[in-house]
Fold this sequence. Notes:
Blueprint (H helix, E strand, L loop, with lengths): L1 E10 L3 H15 L2 E7 L6 E11 L10 E6 L2 H7 L3 E10 L11 E5 L1 H7 L7 H12 L5 H11 L4 H21 L15 E4 H11 L2 E6 L6 H14 L2 E4 L3 H13 L3 E6 L1 H17 L3 E7 L16 H6 L8 E3 L4 H18 L2 E7 H5 L1 E4 L18 H4 L43 H19 L7 E4 L5 E6 L3 H11 L5 E6 L1 E3 L9 H7 L2 E6 L5 H10 L5 E4 L8 H12 L1
Parallel strand pairs: 1-4, 4-5, 5-6, 8-9, 8-10, 10-11, 11-13, 12-13, 16-17, 16-19, 19-20
Antiparallel strand pairs: 1-3, 2-3, 2-14, 7-14, 12-18, 15-17
Helix pairs in contact: 1-4, 1-5, 3-4, 3-6, 4-6, 5-6, 7-8, 7-12, 9-10
Amino acid sequence: MDISIRIGGAAGQGIQSIGAALAKFFCRSGFHVFTNQDYMSRIKGGHNFYQVRISELPLSAALDEIDILLALDQNSIAIHHHVVRETGIIVYDQATGTADFTEPASLAIPLALVATEANGTKIMANNVALGALLGLMGQDLAGINDIIQQQWANKGAELVRQNIEVAKAGYDFVLNHSDHRLAIPPPSTKGYLLLNGSQAISLGALVSGCKFYAAYPMTPSTGIMVNLAAQAKKHGIVVEQAEDEIAAINMALGASYGGVRAMTGTSGGGFALMTEGVSLAGMTETPVVIAEVQRPGPATGLPTRTEQSDLLFILYGGHGEFPRVVFAPGSPSQAIALTNKAFDLAEKYQIPAFILSDQYLADCQWSYAELDTDSLTYTDYRLRNPELEKLPSYQRYQVNDTGISPLAIPGESSHLVVVDSDEHDEDGHIIEDAATRNQMVEKRLFKKLRMLRKEIAAPELIGHRQPEILLLCWGSTYGVVKEVTEILEPDHSIAMLHFSELFPFPASEEFAYLQLLDQASQTISIENNAGGQFAKLLRAETGFGVSTLINKYDGRPFTTTNLLGELNEFLG
């Protein structure tokens, strides 16, 4: 069983609330769920859709073909009716749309009328649609009643009762007016967790001891700030909405200097403003974690769409030479683990650490039976009292074999803590002599990089152990490339390499992935950008050039359908 439901309409029609409730219902019912969204940059109007895919098996990507289209306006019918399967159905609001075709099947529902006749209001029409969808799929309403109860509990018992009754009215309308049903077998488990990328990064920050988050709202990174703000009181986190991105990164650096784990988040346009602060972190060796959630550029670009076009910008943003780590999770579970690792390495090596996400990963929801917490760690690398007070002296930028100097908190001991954005000596005081400059560059850059490379994990191999065709991907394309690889593997000698730890670039001593690349007859880099930025990085770091690029840069993610089509055409 593999069913996809697409809810289409204009912003402000309750598309997200229907999709989110539906996803939560099936996840709690014991089905695997994958959701994705497509929305325009406007508060009301335009055209948006929310897609929910459900199955008894784990899911990691979306399909183009759908089984149910819920059209809340006529535009949704015109745009999406051609991707409804022959066995599928279009459910539409009778007040706003018409179906002038015989296939696929269709069902008109007067949503507002059904709501008012059930003693609700017209604004509750989306819950009529929700009940109708569950009726088409033969589901028990008890589960959705619990979700409605939780959603509206703070609005009062009467409003909860009305919404439940309205959902039942939509459910009954389908039973009385349509014989079309989608067969969904009973689930075999009790339920799953449902998590999107923004929630996962926020959770990773929480378990890593983040105590300060500053950001200026910028789609699609704002979800991280919203999620952390919701947990701020419970976990003792200060969440600050800064006046701009320059202030945000400097606030985070100030908080880190003051002794707490700190983080900021933005998208490409905001990161352009942060680059001076990134360089400041490099010179002062101040730990900071930066989440950069990509969207298409240049300039304002497509604010609510997705792209993987900031990789090279993140690698080289900030003037001067200093070390950094760059992680690009491919799933919510990876996002938790890599956010945790970013905090750990940022403080251990006193560097900026980046989590490179995008709109697709930020908004997509994945289902999990459980989350792996074995790899999560928390180590306090700061030098605190009484250990600090026992030292006869303290040098913030002490030169040693590792390049990692003692990191103390100002005001916590009798020792003076000095930092400077100018080049400095071991005590933190300004210098201009050549010998000290060389010594500090070697300490900050070369010594740390040698150790950092040992911290970076190798790419993940999925598929044949010695493949003739090797698909390369990074970041959010993980799920769709994984699904396509599993589909093609029975008929082809094919595998995928997913890179989630991008800089320093992973060594090949423990896992000889470069040998796999050399042995494969075809190497295909799959990226959501126009220039093949990862392929360029791979060649710069290893000298290996891929044989083929598959690039998508229209602001939309790859789906299993369209990527499979491209690969099948390439493979003949």
